[in-house]
């Protein structure tokens, strides 16, 4: 599916269906897509370019932001709010929030922010800032101390995992920029890898491996190699969301 850009015709929207406006390499959009995928909620996906935004996008999102979920004319922005809305659709019995509670959900969101703040700068800025690297490593260490079970709050998947994982899934891509690793050598780390990072943060590496194997994640997630290619194209000034 291609990203719609300025000049492309406005897509038709079925008000009776859930419609998600998203960007293919936005981890905040991925949060929402994973929540929809886990709950097996059918929806229409509209990918939009954030570099050359369609002029009709402001009709739905005045600030031109995604993710945006629309249903029966109602609009929801902000990934965490959309996630919570989706998670409540089928009641408490299937709710992932009931597993972790709001406090752990917010804690996971804060850890994701600490990780992706400096991580975003490392990924996409042309010059590597040493202070960003220090903050990134500190965030990795904090995650290592927080991820002591299979999932964020224990042995059961929760909404905290879905708010955390999409942002920290850029772990190896960020490391590849720090260490100036060639694109062809960027891959998902496993504990069998003889790399310092795998040994330094084993809980983090194991957690990423666990989440990447979840069936509802496999259908949505882009590989680490593809993420690295996109980050490289963006650093070069030509972000290509259609990259394969």
Automatic annotation (TrEMBL):
Q: Does the keyword Ligase apply?
A: yes
Protein origin, superkingdom: Eukaryota
Q: Give UniProt keywords alphabetically.
A: Ligase, Transferase
Q: What is its EC number?
A: 6.1.1.9
Q: Which residues form the GST N-terminal domain?
A: 16-94
Q: Which PANTHER family match?
A: GLUTATHIONE S-TRANSFERASE OMEGA, PTHR43968
> What assembly does the database describe for this protein?
Homodimer.
Q: What is this protein called?
A: Glutathione S-transferase DHAR2 isoform 3
């Amino acid at each position: 599916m291609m990203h719609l850009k300025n000049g492309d015709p406005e897509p038709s929207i079925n008000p009776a269906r859930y419609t998600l406006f998203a960007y293919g390499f936005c981890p905040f959009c991925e949060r929402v897509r994973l929540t929809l995928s886990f709950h097996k909620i059918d929806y229409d996906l509209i990918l939009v370019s954030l570099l050359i935004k369609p002029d009709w996008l402001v009709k739905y999102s005045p600030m031109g932001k995604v993710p945006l979920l629309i249903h029966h004319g109602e609009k929801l922005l902000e990934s965490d709010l959309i996630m919570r809305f989706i998670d409540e659709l089928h009641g408490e019995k299937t709710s992932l929030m009931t597993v972790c509670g709001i406090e752990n959900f917010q804690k996971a969101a804060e850890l994701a922010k600490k990780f992706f703040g400096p991580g975003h700068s490392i990924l996409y800025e042309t010059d590597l800032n040493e202070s960003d690297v220090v903050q990134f490593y500190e965030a990795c260490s904090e995650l290592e101390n927080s991820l002591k079970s299979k999932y964020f709050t224990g042995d059961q998947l929760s909404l905290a995992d879905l708010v955390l994982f999409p942002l920290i899934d850029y772990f190896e891509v960020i490391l590849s920029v720090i260490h100036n690793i060639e694109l062809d050598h960027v891959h998902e780390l496993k504990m069998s890898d003889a790399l310092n990072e795998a040994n330094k943060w084993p809980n983090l590496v194991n957690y990423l491996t666990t989440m990447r194997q979840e069936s509802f994640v496999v259908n949505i997630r882009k590989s680490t190699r593809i993420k690295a290619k996109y980050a490289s194209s963006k650093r070069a000034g030509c972000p290509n969301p259609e990259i394969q």
